[in-house]
Design a protein that fits this description.
Rossmann fold, 41% helix, 8 helices, 5-stranded parallel sheet, 9 strands, 4-stranded mixed sheet, alpha/beta, binds guanosine-5'-monophosphate
């Protein structure tokens, strides 16, 4: 990092949205364009989908190992989502933020609420910004969930049901991106705009941005 960027603290982008809103495609494109942004690899008890890699997409744990992480206080937040446990490791957030790097969290609305709660009154509150990714329509969402083809019908049905409850939380977020079918580039551009705007917040600066 050079110039003003060295004087800036990292932004914590908390991204939520229902399964099928396409948020994975959106943030993957952002991370490809901004490799300096650190993705927080969550722990989960969900089994890996084909192509998913341990330590890259998730840290895949069994339920006992997950409970050990909880008991050790290693998780910033955790929640049961669609019948499996998911949690954010503190070290995935604290280490890059301490280096002034931006961090992106892909977590559900329960997890985002917990982050807001634990961040209150700490430096994390100034670093965090909350982004909701919504589908263009419920039809888009259903189509995407079915097209994924890796989940069983019962799993898809459960995710569809959960999606409506999750969508209701959109107003709790600072920013909204709508990922309409066939308009991925637009959603990615909006997420990038949020990242760039957050980097320009005066509150992001630990000291004056200019060289003395
Ligand atoms: P998936 O199983 O499709 O990868 O993820 C299912 C849901 O779990 C998504 O809404 C995703 O945002 C959420 N999720 C992933 N990691 C975490 C986490 O660490 N904490 C919480 N609370 N939710 C997570």
């Amino acid at each position: 990092m050079t110039g003003a960027a060295c004087r800036r603290g990292g932004t914590l982008i908390v991204l939520s949205g229902p399964s099928g809103a396409g948020k994975t495609s959106v943030y993957r494109a952002l991370l490809a364009a901004h490799p300096e942004v650190s993705f927080s690899v969550s722990c989960t008890t969900r089994p890996p989908r084909p192509g998913e890699r341990d330590g890259v997409d998730y840290h895949f744990l069994d339920r006992d190992a997950f409970q050990e992480r909880v008991a050790a206080g290693d998780l910033l937040e955790y929640a049961e989502v669609h019948g499996n446990w998911y949690g954010t490791l503190r070290r995935e957030v604290d280490a890059p933020l301490a280096e002034g790097r931006d961090v992106l969290l892909d977590i559900d609305v329960q997890g985002a609420r917990q982050v807001r709660r634990v961040a209150a009154g700490t430096p994390l509150a100034a670093a965090a910004t909350y982004v909701f990714c919504a589908p263009g329509s419920l039809d888009d969402l259903r189509r995407r969930l079915r097209a994924r083809g890796t989940d069983a019908a019962a799993v898809i049905a459960r995710r569809l049901q959960a999606a409506e409850a999750e969508l209701a939380a959109w107003r709790d977020y600072d920013w909204l991106i709508v990922n309409e079918d066939g308009r991925l580039a637009q959603a990615v551009a909006h997420l990038e705009a949020i990242l760039l705007a957050c980097r320009c917040r005066t509150a992001a600066y630990r000291k004056e941005p200019w060289t003395p």
